[in-house]
Amino acid sequence: MEAADRYDAAAQLAERLYRAGRITDLEGFLTQVQAREHQMATGLPGGIGLPHARSEYVRETSIAVGIAAYGHSIDFGASDGPATLVLLIATPAASFSQHLEVLATIARSLFRPSFRDSLRRANDAEVISELINSSLVFFDH
């Protein structure tokens, strides 16, 4: 992924969710993601961007993953520098507890260097999906 900034990165990932039918209104959802980004930066240590939003435009909890192209990075406001791995978390507006649980579970996984490295080395969407799903395996959808 090559993104001009964190908003562009979130827009690229949200577009994937929209095309997959998981988001009903792309612009409405992006407005909510941007509002969340204005509240507080979503960068995590280790080169991670974790934009997220609960929204009435989300049909089902979804995660889209982007890996920065070689030589590129995206500033998500983390204290240790820009992100090379971005995960957009989208949850339905009514699912406050689910949103927090998914966010916390993914964040815990991302603090493990081996998990981050596995995502960065993944060569296709299926491998990335398996890695993400394995981190959420105990989570009761």
From TrEMBL:
Protein name per UniProt: PTS sugar transporter subunit IIA
InterPro entries attached to this UniProt entry: PTrfase/Anion_transptr, PTS_EIIA_type-2_dom, PTS_SugarTrans_NitroReg
Residue stretches making up the PTS EIIA type-2 domain: 1-135
UniProt source species: Arthrobacter yangruifuii
Organism lineage string: Bacteria, Bacillati, Actinomycetota, Actinomycetes, Micrococcales
UniProt keyword annotation of Transport present: yes
Organism domain of life: Bacteria
Entries under Pfam families matching the protein: PTS_EIIA_2
Cited PROSITE patterns: PTS_EIIA_TYPE_2
Assigned keywords, A-Z: Sugar transport, Transport
The keyword Transport belongs to this UniProt entry's keyword annotation: yes
